[in-house]
Amino acid sequence: MSQFTPSASFLLRSALRGGLGLVCLVLVLLAGCTHSAPPPKYRIGFSQCTNGDAWRQAMLAGMKKELSFYPEVSFTIKDARYNSALQEQQIKELLRQGIDLLIVSANEAEPVTPIVEEVYNRGIPVVILDRRTTSKLYTAYVGGNNVEVGRTAGNYAASLLKQRGQVLEVLGAPGSSPAVDRHRGFGQALAAYPGVQLVAQVNSNWERPSVLARLPAVLRAHPEVDLIFAHNDRLALGAYQVCKQLGRQNQVKIVGVDGLPGMRGGIQLVQDGVITATLLYSPGGEEAIRTALKILRRQPYDKENILGTMVIDSTNALTMKLQTEKLGSQQQDIQRQQQLLQQQRDTYASQQTVLYVLAAALLGAAVLGAVAFRAFRVNRRINQQLEGQNEEIRQQRNQIQDFAEQAKVETEAKLRFFTNFSHELRTPLTLILGPVEEMLTSAPDLPAAHRHDLSLVRRNAQRLLQLVNQLMDFRKIDVGKMPVRATEGNLVAFVREIMDVFEKPARQRGVSLRFLPAEPVVRLWFDVNILDKVFFNLLSNALKFTPERGQISVSIQPVPADHVVRISVEDTGRGISEQDRAHIFEWFYQGNQSTAKGSGMGLALALGLTRLHLGQLTFSSQPGQGSTFVVTLPLELPPELRSAEAALPAPALAIDEGLTLPKAEDAPLPTGATREALILVIEDNPDVNAFLTQKLQPHFQVDTALDGATGLRLAADTIPDLIVCDVMLPELSGLEVVAQLKGDWRTSHIPIVLLTARNAPEQQVEGVQAGADLYLTKPFNPTFLLESLRTLLANRDRQREHFRRELSTDTVTVAPQRVDQKFLADLTAIVEANVSRSDLSVEDVARSLGISRVQLYRKVKAVLGTGVTDFIQGVRLTKARQLLLTDDLTIAEVAYQLGFSSPSYFSTSFKARYQVSPSEFRALHTTAG
Fold first, then answer.
1. Gap between the Cα atoms of 106 and 116, Å rounded
2. Do 525 and 623 lie in a common domain?
3. Do strands 487-490 and 523-526 pair parallel, antiparallel, or not at all (unpaired)?
4. Where are the alpha helices (DSSP H) in 163-232?
5. Is residue 404 situated within a structural domain?
């Protein structure tokens, strides 16, 4: 036995080494044969205006040809059949199916634009194909240049006619963008050839029957026509048939557009001699799919992809035909090769599975042998080591428990002292703030220097009180004494109210503050006192680290699939460094690169309060580009956290010491009715700007800008009641600012005061001619300036009252003599045209005017001093007075004809306006008559 045991052990070790070597060899071979990671799967939706013509079918064929190279892409097509409402429903259906990218060819630009913008705002890429929408909110555009197509046709026609002859143009559907652009390009080209004259035009609906019906009469009236330019090949074929009927097929040259392959395509028509030439207008299906794949794969792409055009005539028609046939043949070969490749892949996958099973079995046998060999040798040694380690672990555990108990006692004592000390600070702070507030509010004759010092004391005392309150919140969270009392409310309105506090300090620093809720109302249960502190801290932190002319964006996005709602606060500041990221939520941590000396409690408190609300607070940041903090809240809270009583929001606190927010006590009390008026001061000299602001703020609300471009932007955004502008401004002069303001109907009604050091009479005349309402030279009397502003505002009120009286007469249409009157005339015409619609909304009117709802409301409010809804109601009631003077209609018929939902509502509105009911009004005027 002493000789057998070593030999057996040696043989076992040799066998194991050989088996393991074989296993390793098999695994290496398998690793060399494994597939790379499969490409990601994408879902593309295509909303087509129609598939009813050959050109659109060629577009779809090109898409399918290109998609054959991407079997991982799922492609869904929806045919709107020339119906814009159906196309909008189909796009919404594609959204519900969960697409990754949308390709859309709009039937009509304006009706489809809102749903396309909604898709884009949801973060889904949008590729516009062939027909554009009216918005710039899309990811990429693919299509031809119809103006260039028309221009190429014009140049070719002039060449065919040797720059002398008579031309007839067959246009597409009137008002359609391809027809308008092709005609414009054709006219531009012919303008360069005086000998070529466009003698006639024929409209069509893009289809051949319309040409057969309309062209014969025109050709008989113009027998001198030498060439016909048709806007597509179907129209060109119809023109040829008409010429043949009239016996002029050999005298008139015909040029079409599209250049499609196939038996009925333009290339075949050229080759058969039916038409002289056709212009290639690529459907763009392949390019649309290539662009979509670049976007989905995050590869570089062009936003504007304009497809080229070329002339196809007898010199190259055969070549084009052979090329298209060759491409079709190659596509069929590719499809057959893909089928064979898929079969080989399936075979390879099945063989690979068998090989993996065999390798796994061999590896399992080798591992079991190795385990059995080592277990006997290692087991005894491990058991001996475990005995010693267990004893050592028991001793260490007892020591750790003693240390933990001692640390708990010491930490509790420190926190107790910390809390008590914070409580003690509140009493002296109250005694400081009370007298300071009383002195500031009850002593109007207080010297300016003293008032400045007292304001400084008050501001820093309030800052100290805010720090104390944060310490108290920290302690409450730590000991679990801050309960959650959630009430149901609108989260969008709640966040908007918090953002209102930051609008003025952001505006003063030139920071753009944007609010982007995905939905107008998001209802959920939340504690307003807790979330107020969370969002206030995040916005305060973002504003502190965002430089001038930066941007802060707050978005709200419900995620029903995860039962949460996400609120993100994104800034364009300097970002968070790598060494600070791990400690950003730690208490009292201020960061190694921090330049603002804060308390280091804001973000830590926000995190603690968010978790207390069963939510999450995360962040992402790129140094030099900004940071994004995301608060994720559950859509539903447990019943024990809900409160039957609505809690009032706690007053917002400036958590970050680097941020100074406006306080109501800092603003002077209103001195008259003009306190609500908003004055915009545009002055590039900071000292003069500050002086004007100081003089005007006690009497008006004041916005400021240091250059003309910023002033124009603020004027369009805020619609101030009056503008004070310097003439000598950098880049954009004051006279140019006035001209642009008076030329823009949104701001044309605003009185403008020009300030300048140029006092020559001709210069003053130049300023008044530019549109200024008042021209003051420097140095100016501040009192005179103040009284002048009040006079201008009073005159503006009288003008607004004049407009209201003019609109309340029996004739509601206003003569378009000035810009404001032209605006009111257009507005009145739109309302009168839709007065019978009971569902007429402010959005409908704004859309008809081509402006936003907010811009319409601000303009009507500034010109008439009333809302858009009241204006619509006034037009309806004015019309009612006219209709009630006749006996042709009953009162109920008048009500329904004017868009009122019911006769009773009409009677109530009429009596509230004229103090008599409709029946009393009719009886009174009938008796009077």
1. 9
2. yes
3. antiparallel
4. 177-190, 208-221
5. no
Q: Can you give the pTM of this predicted structure?
A: 0.37
- Mean pLDDT across the stretch 40-66? 88
Q: How many domains does the chain have?
A: 5
Q: Are residues 703 and 714 in the same domain?
A: yes
Q: Are residues 524 and 612 in the same domain?
A: yes
Tokens read off for 850: 């081509």
* CA-based radius of gyration for the chain: 39
DSSP reduced 3-state for 808? coil
Predicted confidence band at 383 (pLDDT cuts at 50, 70, 90)? confident
- Domain-embedded: residue 820: yes
Q: What is the domain extent for residue 198?
A: 145-281
Characterize the bridge pairing of strands 523-526 and 512-517.
unpaired
Q: Count other Cβ atoms within 10 Å, centred on residue 559.
A: 12
DSSP 686-709: HHHHHHHHHHHTTTSEEEEESSHH
- Asked whether the CA dihedral 813, 816, 818, 823 is positive or negative, the reply is positive
Is the pLDDT reported for residue 426 higher than 70? Answer: no
CA–chain centroid gap for 80, Å, is 26
CATH number, domain of 794, equals: 3.40.50.2300
How many angstroms separate the CA atoms of 803 and 792, rounded?
17
Q: Are strands 564-571 and 551-559 parallel, antiparallel or unpaired?
A: antiparallel
Cis preceding linkage at 686, omega within 30: no
Q: Are residues 273 and 261 in the same domain?
A: yes
| Phi, psi for residue 579 in degrees, rounded to 5 | -75, -20
C-alpha distances out from residue 150 to 108, 218, 308, Å: 22, 21, 12
Task: Note whether 720 and 763 are within 8 A (CB).
Answer: no
Angle at 519 between CA 517 and CA 522, to 5 degrees: 95
Per-residue confidence (pLDDT) for residue 672, from 0 to 100 = 40
Q: Look at residue 417 and tell me if it is in a domain.
A: no
819 and 727 in a single domain? The answer is: no
